[in-house]
Amino acid sequence: MTGKDTNTAMNDQRYDHEPDRPGARRARSRWWAVGLAGMTGLALTTSLGIGGAPAIGAVDGILTAADDRRGKPDRASTDNKDHKGKGTKDKRKGTPVPCDADALIAAITLANARGGAVLDLATDCTYLLTATIDGAGLPAITTPITLNGGKHTTITRAAAAEPFRILTVEAGGHLTLNHLTITGGQTETFDDGGGILANSGSTLAINHSVIRNNIGNNGGGVANFGTTTVKHSTVSENTARANAGGLQNMAGLLTIERSKITDNTAPGLAIGGGLGSINGATTRINRSSITHNHSGLSGGGIGDFDATTVVTDSTISQNTADVSGGGIFEEGQLTLRHVTITDNNALDGGGGVEIQNVLGGSAATIEDSEITNNTTGRGGGIRNLAATIVLRNTRIAGNQADTGAGVFNNIGSTLTLFSTKVVKNTAVTDGGGIFNEVGGTVELNTATGTVVVKNRPNNCVNVTGCPG
Length: 468
What we know:
Blueprint: H1 3-11, H2 29-40, H3 56-65, H4 76-79, E1 95-97, H5 101-114, E2 117-121, E3 125-129, E4 144-148, E5 153-157, E6 167-169, E7 174-178, E8 181-183, E9 196-198, E10 203-207, E11 210-212, E12 215-216, E13 222-224, E14 227-231, E15 234-236, E16 239-240, E17 247-250, E18 253-257, E19 260-262, E20 265-266, E21 275-278, E22 282-286, E23 289-291, E24 294-295, E25 302-317, E26 320-321, E27 328-342, E28 345-346, E29 353-356, E30 363-367, E31 370-372, E32 375-378, E33 382-385, E34 388-392, E35 395-397, E36 400-403, E37 407-409, E38 414-418, E39 421-423, E40 426-430, E41 434-436, E42 441-443, E43 451-453, E44 460-461
Parallel strand pairs: 1-2, 2-4, 3-5, 4-7, 5-8, 6-9, 7-10, 8-11, 9-13, 10-14, 11-15, 12-16, 13-17, 14-18, 15-19, 17-21, 18-22, 19-23, 20-24, 21-25, 22-25, 23-25, 24-26, 25-27, 26-28, 27-29, 27-30, 27-31, 29-33, 30-34, 31-35, 32-36, 33-37, 34-38, 35-39, 36-40, 37-41, 38-42, 39-43, 41-44
């Protein structure tokens, strides 16, 4: 794909998000009744049409007893060992919420009115949501609220219900999820965040949880405009109509720690199958895996445009893109440290990584990493399109491409290698190790230990100091 083509495609991704506004969608009158009852301390009765729902008075009493704990930070992310719910359970007693969707709606409504709460959801329970409340199945989070799940605790949208996401976090809201599965969310055509939408000024913490099988415009699982942290969790099998099948970071701050981003897809002309960042967003990924994701355009695993991403101690593998950047597509600033990028595929270029300089100033630093066994047309391991890339103590091996199996360095690009090995890569036509177009710059720095050897059919093209 040419820079011009990519620029056109990328420009389509830059737009201003208009947050969901109360009243923008139809909400059933019973949810209004629940909220009103919570505000006034009235008990819900069958006369309000909530048959079987717990009385607000009962929820009110439990919240009163728990007022001293309401809205305090949750410790489950440090007390528990993994996202499957094993380890030491949070010992604090929050407000118990019985296995009933109306009860959960009532509890969140009252928690918002009272400035926050810790809610303990039932184990072995599926909270089945059947109607929208301004575009979500649950009331928008506007205060510090913690939802503690347990073994097999799920919140889902009923399959026959009209489209809506599961949760929205508004400005000033702070939502913490512990040991929960969020699934089945589906937004209207142009609405972001199929599972969860975190709007600007909000905070979202996802701990030991699963975000699965949700559908949205940007961010099939989660769309973040605020500050979102994902720890010890799995984001899987979500779909985006536009960009970022799993998580989309849109001008926010996203941190992913010890988590799995897998089997997500953005099948259209999309950036980021697993996750993506745009519009000046910053994403930090540590000790995580990004695997088996797919993009219909660029960035099968990670796809960024005008963003900054830092990845450490992680694996990016077996992702695919229909055009470029099978593992990673970056237009912005990329830093990789102790990262393995392996077995990814893109049809056109950058089987492992593609760095593209559309807006100007794009750069990548890759240190102490492995880029292996990736495949594409140009640049099996890395394709550099007019950007600046620095490699330190990195191994590029076993990659395959038609041209530039190890690295394809485009005209106007700068590639600098320190203590780096480019070995045993295979090109069909030319540049088994490094193919440098005339007008590109490659500095091997062989005195630091950089070697380019055992590549087929040759080691380098247009690279000074490199054997052919």
